[in-house]
Amino acid sequence: MKRITVLDAGALGDDLDLSRFGAFGKLTVYRETTAQNAAEHLAGAQIAILNKVRLTSEILARATDLELICETATGFDNIDLAYCRAHGIAVCNVVGYSTQCVAQLTVSMVLSLMTKLETFGAYVRSGAYSRSGIANRLTPVFHEIAGKTWGIIGYGNIGRQVAKVADALGCRVLVHKRTSISERECVSLEEICRKSDILSVHTPLNEETANLLDAAHIAMMKPTAIVVNVARGAVTDEAALAAAIKEGRLGGLGVDVYSKEPFPTDHPFYAIKSDPNVILTPHMAWGAYETRMRLLEELEENIRSFLAKGVRNRVDLQ
To answer: Which one of the listed residues 41, 283, 292, 294 is annotated catalytic?
Structure first.
């Protein structure tokens, strides 16, 4: 029987029952784990389950019994994969579990920003509509989404699902990805920035994509364009995005992910968090109840495969 440790159960939601993992051995669950106590929490564990905890080489070097790390996400940039490979620690992620949920938030942000829902809703909630004596309010001006160009950076499972919805809404879809595909109109990063009325980001964070949407590319965009990032905060230049909103060089911004989470008061987005053209959410795009239940089922399969000498979702072997 293995010793299984869940490092940050709080990040998975308080409504989930994690006792199912006790079927694999002795289970210890921590609500949260910090850099300071990570090694202590990992002591004696053969299997670690985590979501946001950063496992550096220094922390992993003290986890001498560790055999398997189960990332409860698709992205695994919080784990020192090179160290794991060099020291025979298996690493599994979960692929495809959150496609519908992340696409849902992406589209929700776009529709809300395009339709100015926050501004119109606030007008009614404040009582101003009732006092106005006028049946309609049509300012700020808003636009139909049909006929607009929707650019998608990154065309994995989530990018593909977003593209399907964009098609259904009557948008022209442009795609930027490393390898062109015949099924979509693929363009350069420069072209997608210049032409997009809506630009959503769905690429993983790695050395190639860090700061991909930088200040120079943001400056190429239409002043009416909407940017939505549900990938990783560091894929974009957050300061440049905030500056573009402040200066009226972007029409709207929706973000669910940040280079530091939660973002502190000195983060560029803190100053624009109440802007009516901005929607900032607390890294919740992946977290619908059905999505998280699917995630737990996938985790069980990953552990079961590892114990049977399988390689299911082994990212350390890539």
So the answer is: 283
